[in-house]
């Protein structure tokens, strides 16, 4: 009789067991089951380089008071400041025209810097009026209202250089501020348009 041969099934090798996850800096088990010490070096964060340091002069300007005056407020500030400076000039320096003209320049610059953006056009207009108001104490006119008025007109004619210089400084500062304001508006409109274009769903 024929004998049937039986084949013994072969065992397939089992896949290698993976080592369990190890905690950072802790103990884990190797393939054989023995504890293995693992040291994980933490990533060292490098300091980011500074894009640029702000100059001390710019920091000092930022700490300086920066009010926003209306057109009328800026005119009143300039007139009051020049009248006070004119009185001090008359009392201390006997009405020095040069000192008064030099002091008129920073007042003109501050008036153009402190007026709000909507009233920038009023800065070059209010500054000459403030100069005329402040020149009254140092004009030195006598003989009533007529004599005082003639003295003021004469002082304005003599100090026309300082008057034009302060007015030009105020106009220049106001123009630069206006240009910067227009650029910021254009950048803002471009950002808004770019954001709206990104939000639109694609067909």
Output the structural class.
mainly alpha
Amino- and carboxy-terminal Cα gap: 81 Å
Can you count the helices?
Answer: 7
User: Which series of helices and strands comes N to C?
Assistant: EEHHHHHHH
Measured by DSSP, the beta-strand proportion falls in: under 5%
Described by its quaternary structure, the protein is: single chain
- Largest sheet: number of strands, sense, barrel closure: 2 strands, antiparallel
Uncertain residue ranges: 19-27
Q: Total number of β-strand segments?
A: 2
Mean pLDDT: 78
Helix content: 55-70%
| Strand neighbour order, sheet with most strands | 1-2
Question: What general form does the structure show?
Answer: elongated
Gyration radius, in Å: 40 Å
Question: What can you see in these coordinates?
Answer:
Helices cover 59% and strands 3% of the residues. It has a two-stranded antiparallel sheet with strand order 1-2. It has helices at residues 56-63, 71-93, 97-114, 123-134, 136-139, 144-158, 160-199; strands at 27-29, 35-37. The chain is mostly helical and 203 residues long. Mean pLDDT is 78; it is low at 19-27. A hairpin with a 5-residue loop joins strand 1 (27-29) and strand 2.
């Amino acid at each position: 009789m024929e004998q049937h041969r039986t084949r013994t099934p072969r065992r397939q090798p089992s896949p290698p067991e993976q080592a369990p996850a190890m905690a950072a800096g802790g103990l884990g088990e190797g393939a054989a089951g023995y504890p293995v010490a693992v040291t994980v070096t933490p990533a060292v964060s490098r300091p980011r380089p500074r894009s640029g340091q702000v100059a001390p002069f710019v920091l000092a300007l930022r700490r300086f008071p920066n009010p926003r005056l209306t057109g009328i407020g800026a005119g009143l500030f300039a007139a009051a400041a020049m009248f006070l400076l004119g009185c001090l000039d008359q009392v201390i320096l006997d009405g020095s025209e040069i000192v008064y003209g030099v002091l008129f320049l920073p007042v003109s610059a501050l008036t153009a810097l402190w007026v709000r953006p909507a009233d920038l056009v009023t800065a070059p207009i209010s500054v000459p009026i403030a100069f005329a108001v402040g020149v009254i104490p140092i004009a030195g006119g006598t003989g009533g209202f007529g004599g005082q008025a003639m003295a003021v007109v004469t002082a304005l004619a003599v100090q026309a250089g300082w008057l034009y210089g302060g007015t030009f400084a105020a106009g220049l500062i106001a123009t630069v501020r206006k240009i910067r304001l227009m650029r910021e508006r254009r950048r803002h409109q471009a950002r808004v348009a770019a954001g709206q274009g990104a939000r639109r769903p694609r067909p």
